[in-house]
Amino acid sequence: MIGGLFIYNHKGEVLISRVYRDDIGKGPFPNCFHKVGCTESYRMRNAVDAFRVNVIHARQQVRSPVTNIARTSFFHVKRSNIWLAAVTKQNVNAAMVFEFLYKMCDVMTAYFGKISEENIKNNFVLIYELLDEILDFGYPQNSETGALKTFITQTGIKSQSKEEQSQITSQVTGQIGWRREGIKYRRNELFLDVLESVNLLMSPQGQVLSAHVSGRVVMKSYLSGMPECKFGMNDKIVIDKQGKGGATEEQSIAIDDCTFHQCVRLSKFDAERSISFIPPDGECELMRYRTTKDIILPFRVIPLVREVGRTKLEVKVVIKSNFKPSLLAQKIEVRIPTPLNTSGVQVICMKGKAKYKASENAIVWKIKRMAGMKESQISAEIELLPTNDKKKWARPPISMNFEVPFAPSGLKVRYLKVFEPKLNYSDHDVIKWVRYIGRSGIYETRC
Amino acid sequence: MPAVSKGDGMRGLAVFISDIRNCKSKEAEIKRINKELANIRSKFKGDKALDGYSKKKYVCKLLFIFLLGHDIDFGHMEAVNLLSSNKYTEKQIGYLFISVLVNSNSELIRLINNAIKNDLSSRNPTFMCLALHCIANVGSREMAEAFAGEIPRILVAGDTMDSVKQSAALCLLRLYKASPDLVLMGEWTSRVVHLLNDQHMGVVTAAISLITCLSSKNPDEFKTCVSLAVSRLSRIVSSASTDLQDYTYYFVPAPWLSCKLLRLLQCYPPPEDGAVKGRLVECLETILNKAQEPPKSKKVQHSNAKNAILFEAISLIIHYDSEPNLLVRACNQLGQFLQHRETNLRYLALESMCTLASSEFSHEAVKTHIETVINALKTERDVSVRQRAADLLYAMCDRSNAKQIVAEMLSYLETADYSIREEMVLKVAILAEKYAVDYSWYVDTILNLIRIAGDYVSEEVWYRVIQIVINRDDVQGYAAKTVFEALQAPACHENMVKVGGYILGEFGNLIAGDPRSSPLVQFNLLHSKFHLCSVPTRALLLSAYIKFINLFPETKATIQEVLRSDSQIRNSDVELQQRAVEYLKLSSIASTDVLATVLEEMPPFPERESSILAKLKKKKGPGAVSVELEDGKERGECVNFNPKPQRTSTPSPSADLLGLRSTAPASGATPSAGSLLVDVFSEAGPSATSAGVNDDGFLRFVCKNNGVLFENQLLQIGIKSEYRQNLGRMYLFYGNKTSVQFVSFNTTLNVQTKTVEPLVEGGAQVQQVINIECLTDFIDAPLLNIKFRYGGALQNISLKLPVTINKFFQPTEMAAADFFQRWKQLSQPQQEAQKIFKASHGMDTEVLKAKLLGLGTALLENVDPNPENYVCAGVIQTKAQQVGCLLRLEPNAQAQMYRLTLRSSKDTVSQRVCDLLAEQF
């Protein structure tokens, strides 16, 4: 289990240090000051220093999120300039630790917005309070923001009546810990977002080397009472089971794997593959999934690189949008890497704006929006400085960012039914909104 | 320094550096650097030529980026351009970039060399210095090739500025260190030596570094420097502190130069010229006198400088080792430092004294400080100082104070630092052995040693104690008693159990009379430790048990019971199991007589260099020369463990009792341990260790069957052979003495053999069996060719296999009458072979008898009327025929001569056996 949790700033100074178990810090850590017979707190500092010396200030950039130093494991995630590191001496489930760290980031974001050094310094007390609640002797506890917000508040000590207190207790310890009773809304409303990120690696000839979509269904609900919901989508297994005879015009998709929010009844999903749940109030991530088959690739990148002598390089890149002309892609950005000995760049593009960014060693081409079934082109002349290095340029892939208003996996929400038998509103009275957003993940084409 | 131009601030560089310093994260830093690099690239690429200032600025930025740890692969050309600039700062940056970044890049090196040449030939001293510094900083072979001829010329040229001369001397030193073969002084030698007379002290200081280095390589060429150095030294030493102006450091005149001069003199023996020598002695005395004067300043720099010279002078005195007066004075001076409050001084004093102790003149003087040193060992806070104190104690030890020193070291050992314990243990063991007056003290000391620091007692130490106990009759009983008492401690170290097992197994009978240490009590005591020990120790204990059966028949039932138990006879360790099974069978089948023969007391070990000393030398590395020398000196008076007369009987199986054959090769014993083992087994005479000449090895085997046939640095060939009638079997053991594998190992014999494994692992042994059948009598021995690859080199060794005709002797017992009858029958002249020769070894009766027995014949007693004479008879068995053979050896003790007469039924046999035997006595 997690032995301790530290938050560092970019300099490696410790902002938050919470130790759950004594076993960490019993080094001896390399590169760290170590004295025989030092005190407990001193030894704890040892683990703290070990991470700073060996990861944050490492000579070579540390790419692995898990670092093992002197039989102690450090799991870290980085948010802007802030490092969160969980430390343990035991053989823990690494996925669990990272899930916890991400969850913790979510909770902190929900409480005070962006995770930055300043925000963390301003919320010391709150963070320690949260850490006390969501991690107990290194075991993760209830980390549902909604539930936490009922009893960890930022607005000072709010005297709660006995009734309220007992209500919180019964909710947190009860069967449905994520939703309190007696919620009332005048308008019962429900928002559903399907957020996907599409990842691609393509050869220069246009052959797909690897591609997958990882998606999330995020739900924001403002519903009264304790509504029972049922969510349906074009899952291949469900469709095949139902509509044997009827030729459905809808395409069904094969989901490789998926995970659900804790409110979903897994037994029911396993038995009949139906997704039913009582949602938490407000926002929650209902499910996460991944698909690899029949992915709609929104853009195609066609690169053309020609080396003219030792001192010149000609690059031409064509992008083609590959979706319904009625849809508009947004925030398109193409990043064309330049050799390390570039001394000058001239760019011509038909659409959008292109610029050579020396600090990133790349040409960045930005297009605000672009309709489907269109194509656009950029051409650049790169001047090179002759070097005495015989190494050839490695030609890193051209990468791309975009946002499209459909789900590249092909996922469709078929229904979301709401039943609240105790209160007098029916499924039809609930106002429902569905939105699809497809974003680029690592979307690269080799050149 | 030339005037600095106004734009020297390089604002762009300052801004860039402060930008980098202000970066919040590594990523930001990399982005800033990328941006700057792109900017510089575009500037360098740009069409319009850059002026010197911006070139310098950008090269500087590149240098800074490189020093931050990023790769720079351009800008070299611009840096080289800067070299030809006329401005000091631009040139300086250019040279800096070149020194840091240049690699042996062929196209640029030529340009750089050109620029350097120009600067060297310019008359501007600063430019010359810059060029020289660059050469020294790069110091590559290419640089040496290009400039090794040029620099000496600059160094000795009359019109060169002093500062340039300094740089040139140091630059030349650097080149010489990097590639000595390229720097040839030749004609310059005498002129360089005369730099010692230079007016400018800086030049002298620089030159002396160069001369010291050069003269340590070829001292003869620079011999003349001695007198110059002495006169220079005396001028400095005798000068008042104000004379030397800039070169007086806290009232000490030119301390660095003095140290270097003294160090240079240490490269040479004492000057032969009386005047020079007198002057030098005077200098040294002055230095020693000055040390006594009250300090002129309280500053630490003053005393540091003074002491530096003093210590260097003492080193020189020790190096000369010829001035008793000075040595004693140095020793007294160091004695004062032993109690100085400065730790460094105490350390240095102890260290220097250590070398002083080995000088015959000052040894006694050093000994007077024994109390202080012992006190230092006990109370010193710094471990390195304590270590030096221990070294000094070791060095100053002799017979008079050995007991005290060993006792002190033993008591210190209990609290000693772990890092020096092993060395301390070795030292105590050596001192105890070397200066042992009575052996009970020696045994006590070593057992104490094992008790106190068992973990640090290496194998060699306890091997040695066993060797000594076995070789000395008078100490055996005491050793057995002491070991028995030591073993009674509830927790005793495994090494103690090993020693105890071995000694009680051999000499347990000597203390069995006492009811408190009756055989059964001894056995139970040993066996109570059995389960706590590792496998090698257990194996040794099993051997001790079987020896107990021999020593005390009454313990037989108990021990058999132990051997029979499942934990022994079915032990998972194959060695233990085999021993248990074999010993059990041996004890139940063999008669008491056989048992007594098989398990007889170990023969004494041949005397040779202490393996512990060898180990200490190895541990200390080449630095231990002084210890070695001293040891050589002391050897004459150190106690001798007289080897008993050489026995040449075939080794009984009890040789295995050491319990080492299985352990050492398997556990990859250190080479020194390996050689120890070999000696234990071979029972070879003194010549065995120096075997190397093939024939020599061959002849030694005429009268014996087992031993080491051949040994060099790489390979050792052991031999074990047995003969019966006309058949023989020979086991050859090829032992790899190195830690490296021998590849394609292959042996060929002009007789057919089984092939050996083609690989011999480092430290491992492979075995080859040769079956021999004697068809008819022969003269030439079979040749054995061994080829293998060690590292890359092919090794080829050719040996004569020690198979001689006498190996096929069958001894024949006969009465006197019988003998003379046969003797007369073989009276034809060709049947007899006779030789008269001088004795090459001593004429010891026992040795002669053993040799004759080893020959394979029967030694007939009471046959010859003269009891001094030896008479033997035997039959040589060949497949074709049997050849009877009679032998008579008449020694003449006065003349140290022998007459050897051989008669046999075949003339060639008589001749051959006679030839063979004649070499043996």
Explain how this protein is built.
Chain B: Belongs to the adaptor complexes large subunit family. Chain B: One of its GO terms (molecular function) is clathrin adaptor activity. Chain B: Adaptor protein complex 2 (AP-2) is a heterotetramer composed of two large adaptins (alpha-type subunit AP2A1 or AP2A2 and beta-type subunit AP2B1), a medium adaptin (mu-type subunit AP2M1) and a small adaptin (sigma-type subunit AP2S1). The complex is a heterodimer of chains A (447) and B (921). In chain A, 19% of the residues lie in helices and 40% in strands. With 447 residues, chain A is α+β, with helices and mostly antiparallel strands. Chain A has a nine-stranded mixed β-sheet, with no helix packed on it. In chain A, strands 2-1-5-4-3 form a five-stranded antiparallel β-sheet, sandwiched between helices. A four-stranded antiparallel β-sheet of chain A has the order 14-15-20-17, with no helix packed on it. The longest helix of chain A is centred in the first third of the chain and has 19 residues, at 94-112. The two termini of chain A are 45 Å apart. Mean pLDDT of chain A is 87; it is low at 33-39. Helix content of chain B is 55%, strand content 11%. The radius of gyration of chain B is 38 Å and the shape is elongated. The N and C termini of chain B lie far apart (86 Å). The chains are: A alpha+beta (447), B alpha+beta (921).
